[in-house]
UniProtKB/TrEMBL annotation:
The active site is at 86 (proton donor). Pfam families: Aldo_ket_red. GO terms for biological process: bile acid biosynthetic process. One of its GO terms (molecular function) is Delta4-3-oxosteroid 5beta-reductase activity. PANTHER family: ALDO/KETO REDUCTASE (PTHR11732). Residues 49-331 form the NADP-dependent oxidoreductase domain. The record marks 115 as: Lowers pKa of active site Tyr. This is NADP-dependent oxidoreductase domain-containing protein. Belongs to the aldo/keto reductase family. Substrate binds at residue 171. CDD domains: AKR_AKR1D1-3. The lineage of its organism: Eukaryota, Metazoa, Chordata, Craniata, Vertebrata. InterPro entries: AKR, AKR1D1, Aldo/ket_reductase_CS, NAD(P)_OxRdtase_dom_sf, NADP_OxRdtase_dom.
Amino acid sequence: MVQGSWPTYGLALREVRCSSIVHILDTNMNLTAESHRIPLSDGNSIPLLGLGTYGDPRTTPKGTAHDCVKLAIDVGYRHFDGALVYFNEHEVGQAIREKIADGTVRREDIFYCGKLWNTFHPPELVRPALERTLKALKLDYVDLYIIELPMAFKPGNAFYPKDQDGNYIYHHTDLCATWEALEACKDAGLVKSLGVSNFNRRQLELLLNKPGLKHKPVSNQVECHPYFTQPKLLEYCRQHDIVIVGYCPIGSSRDASWVNLKCPPLLDDEVLVSIGKKYNKSSAQVALRFNIQRGVVVIPKSFNPERIKHNFQIFDFSLTEEEMKAIEALNKNIRFVELLMWSDHPEYPFHDEY
């Protein structure tokens, strides 16, 4: 624990878990650009705002991730969300190491989240996959390592294995066996905290109820924004001291190959725009503030220098309880990211209500 106020926050969170925790963060700790970490159940902590580092490798110029991560560290970001399957961890790691070398940050100031891809679920492949991430980053450990999706694919060199007819080749999924291999990685000091991503309640319960569970998942990274507020999953995770990390917190690109275009553009919403005018903020800043104010970590992705700066400017205003409720009421229960191409996988997570 680095800040004395965190235990108070954790206590308050437990006390009011069954009621509204709107404003819990503001009443128990002052979120600032310099200090916006919240505790994880294993004693570590996570910054509430991070930078997503995904960029389409086919269209993103080489060096973009490197330059943007260096800029982000100068702006004040300390949390970076990456993955082996983003094909740019070497750039992200180089940027982090350069900012450590020039004295801007220390390694312990930085929070890096890496992800275990679907083709590495068999237990014997878990540590080698994490070691590939560490080798690309040229770091000794990652702060958080998460199962990216609860769906195993056929192991091998192809990240998206397909048969001759173009169908994805799946693999037997044993989330508990994969988790045990991750626990061994934590025990070996390769990762500080363990989490999951895109897990529904049933899949979380599978891990939480696993006989001999050594390390609980501290986080679940899922889509979360004013049009998809995740009230039931958020409540379930709060009850089990699991932090929600929200991806697409300001909506998504309109890439029809993986984005549900039936979901209207979030940032055009009149409620978000009008609240923003009151504080001289954009709808994007209001959407980000909404989530961090209810304890949801946000990781907006941007490789635009101005937007990277813009998205960080959310610590100099606070939403009222009425405004929080108005934004909560925008929930349409519509996902931007449906992953329908894998909806026939036995562990596809989005068939369940939450």
